[in-house]
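An instance noted here:
***
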Amino acid sequence: QGMGFLVGALLINLSEEEAFWGLHRLMEDKEMEGMYWSGLPLLQEKIFQLKGLMERHVPEVLRQFDAVGVDMAMFAPQWFMTLFVYLFPTSLVLRIWDIFL
């Protein structure tokens, strides 16, 4: 699933030991392991939270998504499961991770 993208990004930017501890921190301290458990409970929670944020801040975008049949599950999983590695340039991903970590 998306964990390979995380590990790859860590290994490209850190030593093996730092990458190991970085992944450990993501999974344990930031509780990201739920993103990869059976049933993907954390992923479902994050998609629900994203929808709530969109309802609050950009309801017109959410209405347009609904009008054309776009479900968050069509695009959000790759964002959350890869922590944006799949989608954004490395420089932006590292900035997001700096804020997150």
